[in-house]
């Protein structure tokens, strides 16, 4: 069996997957250029909602599989961030407000009438991955956090500039997420590096992150195809 990669090389392997992240997807390119229609933005928000609502379920699966109480305490904070400490709070609630700012009703987002089969398949596969794989692989899949801050910063600026009809309160998800994403990315990377003691575990972590990048791009593929742009 091969020796484990040095920490710097392992980290570099993970960071190199930034080229597979969804920031360069044609749908995002058009979003930032300001060429999406209102209908396309609504479809994006409704489908992204399905991903947002499933993130706490993914994180709960990690907790269920992790034997380390220190890791569970750390990871449990993410569920609270998304679900909120009480009703009407949290990242999921802020995403619903974004959908409403785009002209969707809360009812039509919550009943998932706009969620496409491709989106549902990809997101369900991600939740099942977290349930069935060792917890550190599921944590590694979330290392897309390393790549997301730049995209989110650019998205917030471009959407404000290109789609001025969106009310400012619709951007609450992005403004609040930007405050925590960099710290979460660093802590997740540290957790993965510390707990991948063998070369096999390191390779599995790299594969997990690649899988997550494919899940994200599959969501946009579904939206893009339905919009008739691809």
Summarize the structure.
Ring cyclization and eight-electron oxidation of 3a-(2-amino-2-carboxyethyl)-4,5-dioxo-4,5,6,7,8,9-hexahydroquinoline-7,9-dicarboxylic-acid to PQQ. It catalyses: 6-(2-amino-2-carboxyethyl)-7,8-dioxo-1,2,3,4,7,8-hexahydroquinoline-2,4-dicarboxylate + 3 O2 = pyrroloquinoline quinone + 2 H2O2 + 2 H2O + H(+). This protein has 230 residues and is an all-alpha fold.
Question: Could you please describe the fold and organization of this structure?
Answer:
The protein has 230 residues and is mainly alpha-helical. It has a single domain, classed as Up-down Bundle (Heme Oxygenase, Chain A), CATH 1.20.910. Helix content is 73%, strand content 0%. It has eleven helices and no strands. α3 runs parallel beside α7 and α9 runs antiparallel to α10. It is globular.
